[in-house]
Design a protein that fits this description.
One of its GO terms (biological process) is translation. It comes from Microbacterium album. Pfam families: Ribosomal_S6. There is one protein chain. By secondary structure, the protein is α+β, with helices and mostly antiparallel strands. The chain contains three helices and four strands. α1 packs antiparallel against α2. The longest helix is centred in the C-terminal third of the chain and has 26 residues. The protein is flat.
């Protein structure tokens, strides 16, 4: 059974940003060979990190949306964690990611309502 997933990856800042798509493609073949599909690859580029990772303050962010089986996704995650070019990776099912965004929006609304009530 296939599900939709979202992969967030932070790559080493020393990597040339033009090489990022080819680096990702090398690992995403795990998904396509297992019968999955790559829906979207979005490379955000070099960004400042919220906190230091491996004594670095910057990283190259990439977000990949794909459809695959859980076994293929686990194998992708395993291979990414073994590669030194990736500082951090996080794979989420799309349903979980959407639920997280929705719950954060509810919290923001509640915070705004409390703030408005406190002013009144």
């Amino acid at each position: 059974m296939t599900h939709q997933y979202e992969l967030m990856a932070i790559l080493q800042p020393e990597i040339d940003e033009r090489q990022v798509p080819t680096i990702l493609d090398k690992f995403l073949t795990v998904i396509t060979e297992a019968g999955g599909s790559i829906d979207n690859v979005d490379i955000w580029g070099k960004r400042r990190l919220a906190y230091e990772i491996q004594k670095k303050n910057e990283g190259i962010y990439a977000v990949v949306n794909f459809t695959a089986t859980s076994e293929a996704t686990q194998e992708l995650d395993r291979q990414l964690s073994l590669n030194e070019q990736f500082m951090r990776t996080k794979v989420l099912r799309a349903e979980e990611a959407i639920a997280m965004v929705a719950s954060e929006a509810k919290r923001a609304e509640a915070r705004a309502a409390r703030k408005t009530a406190a002013k009144a």
